[in-house]
Amino acid sequence: QLPLALMLSLLLGYLAWLVTASRMSFTWEINLGLAAREFELFCQPLLNARTQQCMGVEILLRWNNPRQGWISPDVFIPLAEEHHLIVPLTRYVLAETVRQIDYFPATPDFHIGINVAASHFRHGMLLQDLNRYWFSARPVQQLIVELTERDALRDVDYRLVRELRRKGAKMAIDDFGTGNSSLSWLEKLRPDVLKIDKSFTTAIGTDAVNSTVTDIIIALGQRLHIELVAEGVETEQQARYLRQHGVTLLQGYLYARPMPLRDFPKWLTERGS
Ligand code: C2E
Ligand code: CA
Ligand code: CA
Ligand code: CA
C-alpha cells in the first residue's frame, strides 16, 4: 500500500497537470479559431429614444467553433481575459470591423462601438492598433470605445484615454452599475457615454430596488452631462419609461437582435432611417 503522503502528492500532481492542460488547450483553441476565422462579427443597432432613428451600432463577437458549436461571448471573453488573449481577439475585431466597414454609413455622427478590455490600454497598445486599423479607414469621431465597469478601471492609462478623446473618439462605460469601481472613477475617466446594464432595464416596473438604482444612474448621467444608453430594452413599457426619464439612446431586442454586418444595410433601408 502506498503511503498517504505519496498518494496525495500524486493526486496533486495530476490535478496540476489537468489545470495546465486545460489552460493550454484553451489558448490553443482560441489561436486556432483566430487563424481559421471561426469568429464572426455581429452588430446591434442603437436608436434615438425619441425619433427612433438609428444612431449607430455595437459590434459583438460570436464564435462558431467547429468542435463545440456556437460559444457565447459570456463564456469565451472572460476566459480570453484570464489567458491574456483578449488583446489579440480585440485586434481581430478591429481588423474585421474595418474590413467590413462599408456596411456602415460613413457620416461622423454614425457611431460604432467596440468592446475593449482595460488591459488593452497598457503600453499604448490600443493607440497602435487604432493607428493600424481604424484611423485610415474611418473618421475617429465614429468610434466609441466601450470599457466594461467589471474591469479594473484603475488599470486604464488615463494619458491614453485623454489622447484618444483629443483625437475625437468617445469613451463609454459599459454595464454601468454592475462593477465594483467607486464613483470617483467617473470623475477621473470623464466618459462621454454611460451604458445602463440590462439588469437595470429589466428591473423597470418589476423590481423596486433596482429600478431605484436605474433612476439614480439616470440622474447622475444628467447631472454630469454624460449621454445615457440603456441596453437590453425588450418592452414598450421599458422604452417609454427610459425616454420619459431622459435616456437618449436605446438598444435591445425590441428594436433589433444582433445581426451579421452584411445584414445591416437591409435592416437600415427597410425601416427607412
Ligand atoms: P455587452 O457589452 O453588455 O453587450 C450586450 C449584450 O446584451 C449582448 O450579448 C447582446 O446580444 C445582449 N442583448 C442586447 N439586447 C438585448 C435584449 O434586449 N435582451 C437580452 N436578453 N439581451 C440583449 P452578447 O453578444 O452575448 O455579448 C455578451 C457580452 O460579451 C457583452 O456584453 C460583452 O461584455 C462581451 N463581448 C461581446 N463581444 C465582445 C468583443 O468583441 N470584445 C469584448 N471585449 N467583449 C465582448
Ligand atoms: Ca458593450
Ligand atoms: Ca453592456
Ligand atoms: Ca451587459
TrEMBL record:
Locations listed in the record: Cell membrane
Membrane topology (UniProt): Multi-pass membrane protein
User: Which reaction equations make up its catalytic activity?
Assistant: 3',3'-c-di-GMP + H2O = 5'-phosphoguanylyl(3'->5')guanosine + H(+)
**Enzyme class, UniProt record, top EC level:** hydrolase
Keywords, comma-separated and alphabetical: c-di-GMP, Cell membrane, Hydrolase, Membrane, Transmembrane, Transmembrane helix
UniProt KW Magnesium keyword:
no
- EC number(s) from the headed UniProt entry: 3.1.4.52
Q: What is the protein name for this chain?
A: cyclic-guanylate-specific phosphodiesterase
**Organism, scientific name:** Pseudenterobacter timonensis
The portion of the full protein included here is 244 to 516 of 533
